[in-house]
Every structure is written in structure tokens, then in C-alpha cells.
Design goal:
Order of helices and strands of chain A: EEEEHHEEHHE
Strand order of the largest sheet of chain B: 11-12-8-7-1-2-3-6-4-18
Mean pLDDT of chain B: 96
Number of strands of chain A: 7
Structural class of chain B: alpha+beta
Oligomer: heterodimer
Low-confidence stretches of chain A: none
Helix content of chain B: 25-40%
Radius of gyration of chain B: 24 Å
Helix content of chain A: 10-25%
């Protein structure tokens, strides 16, 4: 039986920026949660979550030995630190938008989730 | 004890970092006893353009404004204990920074340190115009250039240290090169030893943002708790002769270093993990591994390196007009409705002037977009504490000032109960990047004497 939780209960991450490009890491809290991330936190899922920011490209890189993945989102910072009108021109907060994605977790792995339900 | 360990402590991760960072780092380096280097990383993408503007108004300025605050607490003990200092705090005027450090050393009654400056990054002079025009193509003519700097690598830093420098002051160098330079000099690696250069580069990558590896930019109560966030320890990397490193922090400081904090920083500002480009090497963390080897100590292994790029990255900063923003708050019953109405008023008053960004802080702002799609999709609610924020770019100062005046006028002409107007108006800088063949941008060092 599956339950659906926000991704932040299974993974953590941070945002970095270069120009108008953002990179967001997603890091499993436990190795047993890693296959769920690979299966569900796809380029398509992330592109949908950021659709209103109109990324021109979303690429995912896997680092299985670290149970980590790196998303690179092009043209997602409203122009980047130089041109954007937004408050968070670096996109520092964007990792928390990604970590709001839903994740289906089987009952057998729920004890690996972190934080308050 | 392995006595062929080089310890590199980082006491700043950006211009504006905490200036009381260095003392615990220096204490730990002295207590450890072996060869040690203190680095300060203070140059973000645009910091140099601001420094270039500062130098134009004061020929002796243009280096890190907090130089004194950073160095004064530790300079005497670094000189006494042979801890060498390497930094890019020279910004647009490394020689000016070197002269200031000499003056500071004299004030403190120290022997004159040997200070080297690394030069060659600054491409803003008239004799570089043709080179830049070539690299930038057609857009070059339209740019009102403020600064142009190549990202130099570690070699000139290493050469300066090998020539006996106590302190190496750089302008634009790649951030990890502040670490790679001292490692190259200390271990005497070949300059095409890509594997070791790759490893040292990722050690430098972990250090270069200061506390981002030791608990800063990490804490999230209930999920990622960090003890002592108000007194974070800055990182120290212990680098061995093969370039592997252990990252730790001074005893008694706050913060946390575990495989999770280090994983976040390892991937920070990385795109393809198998190709992290620097002037020194293409580092590859595709097979990197992290191991907790003690409390607040993590070992990085498995980093690979590939031949460095043939070209150097050059960042050109240019003036792009003016940026204006304004804010006003609404609170209590129907606050959100009043803030939305104020936003509509501004959109009407400023119509035709340029693209207007509207945020409702407390309702929809940080995740939203310049086109307003997120805000439009956020159903009107009854938030009771809302701050309206608007922003606009304009080619002319007078145009940008219109926004500032219209926000201010909401005091009397806007919805009920609007208060706390704050406005900002500043010149805007843009950045474009290009690549230039390495041979056309020679890096060099020279010593700056106390008497200069």
C-alpha cells in the first residue's frame, strides 16, 4: 500500500545559480528511498512543477553513489541576477518549490521518511 | 600522523560574509601545526563591476571594502606562524589592496610581509577592446562596458607562493583556484596532473562558499537541524598529496558537517557533474564518494579530472539602465483585497512605461513569475498581512523614478490603511560571457613593496 507525501520528507536539496540557469540538487535521506526518487522525480515532473517559470530545458543528472540527483533548469530565473525583476533573483528558494512535489511511498519504506508528517 | 597534509581554511564565502570568521579558523590552523593557508573568497559575478566603479571614483579604491575588518584580527598571527593568505579580495585593484595590507601590517608593528599580486584578468583597458569585440561579436558595440575580467586559474598563485609570497592578492580567479594554487605549490604536482587537480578543485569547491558546507544555507527546523547557527564554524580542508581531502571545522564552533551538508555543497552551482569546468581542469564528480570519518569531519574521494579547457571564461559587466522597486503594506480586515487594488492602480498609472512586476508578499511572491501567471492563478483570499511589491527596469533614470513616485503617492491616493512605503532606485548592471584563448590572456604575478 502506498501513501503520498511531499518530497521534502524523503529528500533534501539546495539551489545554485549561474546567470539565468538554476541547478537544484535532490538528495535522498536514506539509500532505500533513492529508487523512488529515480522513478518519480523525473525531468517531466520537474518541468511541470516549474511550468510557470518557463524553463527552456530541464536536465537531470544521477549520482547513484551519493543517492543524489542534480536538476539543471535553463532560463528559469526571469533573467537571472542581472535582469530579473523578482525578489529572489538567485532563485535561492526554488529548491523548496521542487521539494513540494508529491512522492508515492510504499508502507514498507515509511519508517525512512523524516520530519513531522 | 601524516605530516604531508596541507590545511586550507576558508574565512569568507562572499563579499559581505561575517568578518569575525577568520579567528577560530586561524586558531585551529595554528593548533594543528603543519603547513597551512587561509583563503578569503569575496567576488561574486557582479562584485567586480561594482569594484571597477568604485575605482573610477577613487583610484586607490576598488578592492574589497571589508579588507581591514577581515584581516586585522588575524594578520599578526598569520605572519608569525607562517600561515599564508590567498584571496581574490583585490577585486578591481589588487595592487591597491596590497598597499593597504602593507599599511595595516605597519600599523600593527609587524615585519613587512611579502605580498604578491596576480594580474592579467582585467580586460577593461583600451588595448583589450579589439580582443573583446572579437569574442563578443556584434553585441559588443551596443554594450556600455563597466568591467571585463577573465577567470584566471591557479598557476600564477602557485608561482607567487613558490617565489616566497606570504600573501597572494588576486582579482578575478576561479574560486576553486584559491585552493588549487596553494596545493600545486605545496605538493609540486605536474600542471597537467588532471586527477590531482580535479580532486583539489573539488576541495576548493567545498571551501569556496564558506559555511555553506558546514551548516549555513542548510538549516530547516525539524528536518535539518543545525546547532549554533549564530556562531557557525568556517571550513578547513585537509588535503593530502593525492589531492583527496577531509573537510572539517574549528572545535567549539557551531554548525554541522556531515555527508548531507557536504552533498548539498558538492552539487552547488554544478551543472553536468562529470564536467565541472574551471581554468585549471575539468573536474568530474560522477564517481565521487563521501564518508563520515569523525564528528564534523567528512572525507571526499573518487573525484576524477580531465584536461582543462583551451579557453578562459570572460565576464563582461555593462550598464543596462535603471532598476526601481517600491513596497507598501496592508494589514487587518480585507488587507489582501486592498493590496490587490493598489497593484491594479499602479498597473494603470504606469501603463506603457515598461513591464511591471507585481508581488503580494505573504500571498504570492517568491515562487511567482515576471508575467504574473502564478499570481493570476492564486485565488483571492483573505490574508490579513500583505505587502505589495512592484519592480520595473527602465533605460532612463527619469522613467524608473516614475515607479518610485507612484508607489509613494499611494499613501494618500491608494486604498485605505496603506503604510510603510520603501522605495529603491539603482543603476542596473548586466553580464555577458564569452571565451578567449588562454594564450591571449596571460596571467602573471609581481611583488608589491611596502614603499610603493
Amino acid at each position: 500500500m502506498n501513501t503520498t507525501v511531499p518530497l521534502y520528507r524523503a529528500a533534501h536539496g539546495r539551489t545554485g545559480d549561474k546567470g539565468n540557469r538554476s541547478n537544484i540538487s535532490v538528495i535522498a535521506w536514506h539509500p532505500e528511498l533513492w529508487p523512488l526518487l529515480v522513478e518519480q522525480i523525473t525531468e517531466e515532473a520537474v518541468a511541470r512543477q516549474f511550468a510557470h517559470r518557463q524553463p527552456t530545458r530541464v536536465a537531470r543528472y544521477l549520482l547513484p553513489q551519493l543517492q543524489a540527483m542534480n536538476f539543471v533548469l535553463d532560463e528559469v530565473l526571469d533573467g537571472g541576477v542581472n535582469d530579473a525583476l523578482n525578489l529572489d533573483s538567485h532563485g535561492k528558494a526554488l529548491s523548496f518549490l521542487l521539494l513540494d512535489l508529491p512522492l508515492r511511498v510504499p508502507l514498507s519504506l515509511q519508517h525512512r521518511l523524516v520530519g513531522p508528517a | 600522523m601524516d605530516n604531508n597534509i596541507l590545511r586550507i581554511g576558508c574565512a569568507a564565502g562572499f563579499s559581505g560574509d561575517r568578518t569575525d570568521a577568520a579567528e577560530p579558523v586561524v586558531n585551529a590552523l595554528i593548533a594543528a601545526g603543519g603547513p597551512a593557508v587561509l583563503i578569503f573568497e569575496t567576488l561574486a559575478e557582479r562584485t567586480l563591476a561594482l569594484a571597477q566603479l568604485a575605482r573610477r571614483s577613487d583610484p586607490d579604491g576598488g578592492y574589497e571594502p571589508l579588507l581591514d575588518e577581515m584581516l586585522r584580527p588575524v594578520l599578526a598571527r598569520c605572519v608569525k606562524h607562517g600561515i599564508r593568505i590567498v584571496s581574490n579580495f583585490g577585486a578591481a585593484n589588487p595592487a591597491g589592496a596590497a598597499r593597504r595590507i602593507h599599511a595595516l601590517a605597519a600599523e600593527l608593528g609587524l615585519r613587512a610581509p611579502r605580498i604578491a599580486v596576480v594580474e592579467g584578468d582585467d580586460l577593461s583597458g583600451p588595448h583589450h577592446q579589439a580582443l573583446l569585440a572579437d569574442a563578443l561579436g556584434a553585441q559588443a558595440e551596443r554594450l556600455q562596458m563597466v568591467s571585463a575580467n577573465a577567470y584566471l586559474g591557479a598557476e600564477a598563485i602557485a608561482d607567487a607562493l613558490l617565489a616566497g609570497a606570504d600573501i597572494v592578492v588576486c582579482g578575478r580567479v576561479a574560486d576553486p583556484s584559491l585552493t588549487v594554487g596553494p596545493a600545486l605549490a605545496h605538493f609540486g604536482w605536474a600542471r597537467d596532473d588532471w586527477t590531482r587537480l580535479g580532486r583539489a578543485t573539488m576541495a576548493g569547491h567545498l571551501l569556496e562558499c564558506g559555511t555553506q558546507v558546514s551548516g549555513g544555507y542548510y538549516a530547516d527546523p525539524g528536518y535539518k537541524d543545525v546547532p549554533g547557527l549564530a556562531r557557525l564554524g568556517y571550513p578547513i580542508a585537509e588535503i593530502d598529496a593525492d589531492g583527496h581531502c577531509v573537510v572539517g571545522k574549528p572545535p567549539g564552533t557551531g554548525g554541522r558537517i556531515d555527508v548531507h551538508t557536504v552533498k548539498e555543497q558538492l552539487l552547488y552551482e554544478v551543472h553536468d557533474p562529470s564536467a565541472y569546468l574551471t581554468p585549471d581542469v575539468v573536474a568530474d564528480i560522477g564517481a565521487a564518494e563521501l564518508t563520515q570519518v569523525g564528528p564534523d569531519r567528512v572525507r571526499l574521494t573518487g573525484v576524477r579530472g580531465h584536461a582543462r579547457p583551451a579557453t578562459l571564461k570572460v565576464n563582461v559587466c555593462h550598464a543596462t539602465g535603471w532598476f526601481a522597486e517600491g513596497e507598501i503594506s496592508y494589514a487587518g480586515a480585507r488587507a489582501e483585497a486592498r493590496a490587490r487594488l493598489a497593484g491594479q492602480v499602479l498597473a494603470e498609472r504606469l501603463q506603457g512605461l515598461g513591464r511591471l512586476r507585481i508581488d503580494l508578499i505573504g500571498v504570492a511572491s517568491v515562487f511567482a513569475d515576471d508575467d504574473g501567471a502564478w499570481l493570476a492563478d492564486t485565488p483571492a483570499g483573505d490574508a490579513r498581512d500583505v505587502r505589495l511589491r512592484v519592480a520595473m527596469n527602465h533605460a532612463e533614470r527619469r522613467g524608473a523614478e516614475r515607479l518610485v513616485r507612484e508607489v509613494t503617492a499611494l499613501y494618500t491616493c491608494g486604498p485605505a490603511g496603506g503604510g510603510g512605503v520603501r522605495t529603491a532606485l539603482r543603476p542596473r548592471l548586466g553580464t555577458v560571457s564569452c571565451s578567449i584563448a588562454r594564450a591571449l590572456v596571460p596571467a602573471r604575478f609581481r611583488f608589491v613593496e611596502a614603499s610603493e
